[in-house]
């Protein structure tokens, strides 16, 4: 029994080998190289714009751009922006009456806490100042886009039940929309050319848009 199975395996292996040789032979006879072509390298455009395929010479000469002042400011501003979202999610336990709002808050807390760690690492690796989570907007005296002022935070802290849930979602939507504005400002001021800052900005934009849609849908059920 084992001998007959071995014969079948050998026969199949030989057949597959002959088939592979035939395919390669036909490819060579037809003047085609059986080896796969090299990967295309596409240089991404700004959000909303299409990318551009680089030639082989352009790809070889391509070196990752260094971070600009716009990149550094964007990362430094995003840390306290994310930190305020964590302040908001910390208010949910004991105040929310909806089973869905705590789930939303937990998802936001996990993602934005992880992103703060990434942002702080990005700054340290580039020898830049890491702001404290509660630092004011670097270089400006006004709040960053979407951030709550003291009056709004106090109102959220006082609210309870369904009132809290509606206010929390409304303010968090506004907060997320502010992050999208910050991404737009990054590219408008010449930032986002460094691969790491560009990747993070695109992830922020994608994640915040998805969560805004979820929150808008949740808001209709509160």
Protein described:
By secondary structure, the protein is mainly alpha-helical. The chain folds into 2 domains: 2-61, no CATH class; 69-219, Ferritin, CATH 1.20.1260.10. Helix content is 64%, strand content 2%. It has helices at residues 2-29, 56-61, 69-89, 100-125, 150-158, 161-188, 195-219, and strands spanning 42-43, 52-53. A two-stranded antiparallel sheet has the order 1-2. Strand 1 and strand 2 (52-53) form a beta hairpin. Helix 5 runs antiparallel to helix 6. The longest helix is centred in the N-terminal third of the chain and has 28 residues, at 2-29. The chain is elongated.
CATH architecture of the largest domain: Up-down Bundle
Mean pLDDT: 81
Query: In percent, how helical is the residue content?
Result: 55-70%
CATH class of the largest domain: Mainly Alpha
Silhouette: elongated
What radius of gyration results from the CA coordinates? Answer: 27 Å
Q: What is the CA–CA distance across the termini?
A: 69 Å
Largest sheet: 2 strands, antiparallel
The total strand number stands at 2
Query: How many domain units?
Result: 2
Strand line-up in the sheet with most strands: 1-2
List the secondary-structure elements in sequence, H or E: HEEHHHHHH
């Amino acid at each position: 029994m084992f001998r007959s199975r071995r014969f079948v395996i050998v026969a199949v292996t030989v057949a597959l080998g002959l088939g592979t040789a035939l395919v390669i032979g036909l490819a060579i006879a037809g003047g085609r190289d059986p080896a796969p072509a090299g990967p295309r390298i596409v240089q991404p455009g700004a959000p909303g714009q299409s990318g551009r395929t680089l030639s082989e010479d352009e790809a070889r000469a391509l070196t990752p751009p260094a971070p600009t002042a716009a990149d550094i400011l964007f990362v430094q501003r995003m840390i306290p922006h994310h930190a305020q979202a964590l302040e908001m999610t910390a208010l949910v336990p004991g105040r929310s009456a909806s089973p869905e709002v705590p789930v939303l808050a937990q998802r936001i807390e996990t993602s934005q806490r992880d992103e703060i760690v990434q942002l702080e690492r990005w700054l340290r690796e580039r020898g830049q100042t890491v702001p404290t989570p509660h630092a004011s907007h670097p270089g400006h005296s006004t709040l960053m886009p979407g951030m709550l002022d003291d009056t709004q935070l106090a109102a959220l802290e006082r609210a309870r039940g369904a009132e809290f849930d509606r206010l929390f979602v409304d303010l968090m939507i506004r907060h997320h929309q502010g992050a999208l504005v910050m991404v737009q400002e990054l590219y408008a001021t010449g930032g986002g050319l460094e691969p790491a800052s560009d990747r993070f900005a695109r992830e922020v934009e994608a994640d915040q848009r998805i969560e805004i849609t979820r929150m808008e849908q949740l808001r209709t059920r509160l």
